Amino acid sequence: MNKMNYSQDMIARFWSKVNYPGNDRDCWEWLAYYNFCGYGQFFIAKGQKISAHRFSWEFYNGPITNRLNVLHKCDNPLCCNPEHLFLGTTFDNSKDMVQKGRSARGSLQGNSKLSETDVVDIKRRIKAGESNSSIGQLYSVSPVTISGIRIGKNWNSVVI
Fold it and tell me: Which parts of the chain register pLDDT below 50?
């Protein structure tokens, strides 16, 4: 432990802000300040802060190299349990998010022009034999977008 040689005062301040459930299985939740994304923030010095889960990782495992991120197995941004943390790249983080079904899909995606109701109608029109161009014109999207729906590349979460 304390692979970073943090001072006893800093360690005491950190652990005073963590809800330790008495075991290493459950999440150790951060109780103090957190940012707009929900990640705990620990002020290590005036004007200097570090993510609480990152501090915990470094405390138990040492410095983080290669600009890696500290990711959560538990998907709880307030968790500081080192057993729930692992290192990865930004790509690894995105892949983990998609695999766990946490990425925005359908009309929740910021640049979506279609709604789930639109896609149901589009899929019905596709089944009826309408062309990608005619359906695209009707919904003000490109034929390529309709083709993506047709082949199941896009909007495969909408089933009719």
Answer: none
**DSSP 3-state helix, strand, coil percentages of the chain (rounded to 5)?**
40, 15, 45
Cβ–Cβ under 8 Å, residues 85 and 78: no
pTM: 0.66
Q: 101's torsion region: left (phi>0), alpha (psi -120 to 50) or beta?
A: left
Q: Are 4 and 55 in contact (CB under 8 A)?
A: no
Instruction: Please tell me the predicted confidence (pLDDT) of residue 132.
Output: 94
Q: Where are the domains of the chain?
A: 8-99, 106-150
- Residue 66 has what pLDDT? 84
Angle at 66 between CA 61 and CA 49, to 5 degrees: 65
What CATH topology corresponds to 8-99? Homing Intron 3 (I-Ppo) Encoded Endonuclease; Chain A (3.90.75)
Count of CB atoms situated within 10 Å of the CB of 118: 18
For residue 35, give the nearest of 46, 50, 48 by alpha carbon. 50
